[in-house]
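so im writing up the methods section and need the RCC1-like domain-containing protein record in one place, dumping it here so i stop losing it
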Amino acid sequence: MVKRQLEDDGTQPALKSARSTSTSTAHNHAISPAAYQQQQPPPFSRSTNADPSTSSTSTRIPASSKSRELRHKIYRNQLAILNYQCYLLSQKLLSSPSSISDSGSYLSLIADYTRQACRLKSKYCKVYGDVAVFGDGDCGQLGCGQGVSSARSPRIVAGLRGMDVGSVSAGGLHTLALTEKGCVYSFGCNDEGAVGAKVEDEGYQPVKVEGFVPSAFGPNGVGNHPQITSFESRKAKLGEANIVQIVAGETTSLALSEEGDVYMWGSYRDSEGRKFRHIPPPDDNRDFTGRKDMQTLEEDEKEEWYLPPRGNQDWPMHLCLSQKATDISAGDGWAAAIFADETMVTWGIGTHGEMGRKVPTLDKTTSNQVILEEFLTPKPPVWNEVGSSVHRRKVTGISCGAYHLLVLAKETGAGMSVYSCGLNQYGQLGLGDVDTRFELTKIEYLEDRNIAKIEAGYHFSCFVNSTGKELYSCGRSDYGQLGISLKQPDSGSFESTPVRVPLVYDIDSTIVSDPKGNCIIESEIVEEDQPEIEQISCGSTHVLVLTKEGDVYSWGFGESGACGQGKSDSDVLRPKKLVTKVENAQGAKCGVKFVSGGGQHSAVVVATASKE
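--- predicted struct ---
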């Protein structure tokens, strides 16, 4: 059966082919090996800002060989500190009633507490299990072997059974899994190096990703001019870093260690298919060309195409950021990170405003120097300031869509706000129009709605408030990805202002004037019937929601099977509960503990080996 292609109206970057192995002839500005060896690192500053959640008690996450009880003890200590801080702030508010004009201060306090408490729980009290996948697997992204090219309902990845996986990340055509031991496994398309290891069974089987060895030039290094020690020597001395977060982009992968170091592998692709990557730190002496055999170049290929900042990054490379990171996210060909001081940076091949700043035109004549300085160097985004005042913001959440960015931030003396920037031809920025933004701009509609979770899809966005019971979405809707229609929306349909999306809602079709449009009447939503949302994940054109009760709802593009709703190829237009048939060895139904939506597939963690 011919798969339905996502329609392109010509106002967006061209969708890249699913699996391209051709090499662009425009790679003509690579650095020579001699020049590369002479490169010196930029003078990075070292941060003295401590993580606000730390205390005198060590917060280093113990490996699984250590006591799980110790990890829970750390969680209880950190939660006690958070509770005390919340108590002090509440007492301050009560003692100064004149400074409280309405309930906004209390609601902001509740939202902040909820966000911090959830963050601590997800960090220290994960539930581990096995990985189940569903959707299209033509490039191995399901990890179930070459005999399984698709799955219409959740299917266990046998190669990861018993690995105690805590989280997964589904990318464009590859998937990452993170175990309790802090180890990363990967499978799927490796044409751009996104798997990060030598593939097994042409990428159809999980492989362990290794090479998470910190550079001395990173935020945890020994200064601006450390002694250069070889990668092999540092690996023998330090071993592999313990990874605590994984992110799969379109053709890139990112990992965050417990020490705040960020690692990258894969490549950042532009709209013409050209591949880019970072210059490795001076103490990373591994082969510049990765796994490419330079003796087998075709006549129309050039060596410079495979030297940084061009080509694939075939294994994890330490990104020497200016300070420790606490959160990471990846989009189509770019990425973002939050620092320990609650500021943020963006980097990559983002030419549509998604990085929150203007960049030079990128084409085949663009020099490596411009690519390195203007694109690949992490820089803070620009905020669209109202008036002449410059606000101090604390960034608490980020989410990268294909070509747009969502940011959750708190201004001094104010509550939480949501900002957006980037491509906006479908209203995915939630600003009520379709104008592209090159600066982070506040979404006024979401003010006073106490948004606590943000999630960006390909051309749409989702927002969840602090109670977990109010979900909003905006952007492209023609595949049902907004979850608000009774009938298939017209091609190119969208909502430029966030609309309410109830998970449970009875629609009287006889009174709906436009079944292809927004069929939700917010005043008729029965609030007490709404499940509390624990986690939300947006794929390219579908959405997965995990509730506190352990139920999963999905909606959106149905033909690939990424919604997991069975054999039907129809788009899922309204949130629909996912029936999980996965069972453990005792025959009991397994609860879902983590969800992730990818390009045309999804991955979830099921507690078949639950360890709380």
